[in-house]
Amino acid sequence: MHQNSKKNIPQKVEKLNKKGIRLNKFLSNAGICSRREADQFIAMGLVTVNGKAVTEMGFQVQSDDQVRYDDQLVKGSPPVYILLNKPKGFVATKQGGNIKKSVQELIRTAHSEKVPPIGDMGRPVTGLLFLTNDEKLRKRLSQSQSKVEMIYHITLEKNISVADFEKLRKGISLQNKLYTVKKIDYVIGKSKREIGVEVEHFSPAALNKLFEKIDHKVLLMDRVMYAGLTKKDLPRGRWRKLTEKEVQFLHVKSN
Questions:
Q1: Rounded CA separation 162/166 (Å)
Q2: Please, what sign has the CA dihedral across residues 78, 83, 89, 92?
Q3: Which of 23, 56, 83, 198 has the most neighbouring CB atoms within 10 Å?
Q4: pLDDT tens track of the chain, all 255 residues?
């Protein structure tokens, strides 16, 4: 009895030291669901590892393990955080599917796995776009109450007045919801058709509709800031990975 215990000690130590990833995080990183939802799926017995159902919370998945959810093979991937300066003509949509000239094409050489964008951005709109497969962060940033600041450089068809600025600051109703802009002003050195607009959690489509409501047509829309991230050293059509510090900052902003 005593000798057998000694023999088992090295095996236990080896198992503890063996690196792995929690099963719920593995599913979340793969874009299947959030970690909280993964816990529910695990508890329901919908997840198997190497052919055996796992209901243990905190179970560690190893690199050579085969994980299935609802009998479908799950390919795990580490979390990816990308900032893209989107060019005109490409489209960003969280709906997925086969879309001609998707922003995915711009990052595919380095990331063949699914890295979906946060929010939609139509073909005419340019500027900063954040993409991640971190499901938890995606859900937080996508919530309407998130306080993510965005700044847009907008060119209108005609001059806009200070009175119209005031209308946008006070708020305009769209589909029974009041939308307000935090700040709005003319771009220094440009005509009164070019303005800078700071908003919180605004999609380009919603912003476009706001200007339609006050009889203004948007010709160009460029997102120049997203949650404190700027286009510095990021030419149009190029992308970069976020630093660990930037990722942590986004997690704080999304809370």
A1: 6
A2: positive
A3: 23
A4: 444 444 443 333 333 335 678 898 888 777 778 788 899 999 999 999 999 999 988 899 887 889 999 888 887 777 889 999 999 999 998 765 567 899 988 987 776 567 889 989 999 999 999 999 887 788 888 876 677 899 999 999 999 999 999 999 999 999 888 999 999 999 999 999 999 999 998 889 999 999 999 999 999 999 999 999 999 999 999 999 999 999 988 888 777
H/E run at residue 153: strand 149-156
Q: What are phi and psi of 126, to 5 degrees?
A: -120, 175
Structure-token pair, residue 242: 């976020």
Q: Measuring CA to CA, which residue among 201, 215, 163 is closest to residue 184?
A: 163
Cβ contact 140:255 at 8 Å: yes
Domains of the chain: 2-74 (3.10.290.10), 81-143+230-254 (3.30.70.580), 149-226 (3.30.2350.10)
* Residue 201, CA distances (Å) to 30, 124, 150, 223, 244 in order: 26, 19, 7, 12, 23
Query: Which pair of structure tokens corresponds to residue 74?
Result: 């799950």
Angle between the N-to-C axes of helices 244-254 and 135-142, in degrees from 0 to 180, rounded to the nearest 10: 50
How far is residue 169's CA from residue 67's CA, in Å, rounded to a whole number?
Answer: 51
218: helix, strand or coil: strand
Closest CA to 242 of 130, 104, 116, 86: 130
Q: Give exposure, 204-218, as e/b (b: 16+ Cβ within 10 Å).
A: beebbebbeeeebeb
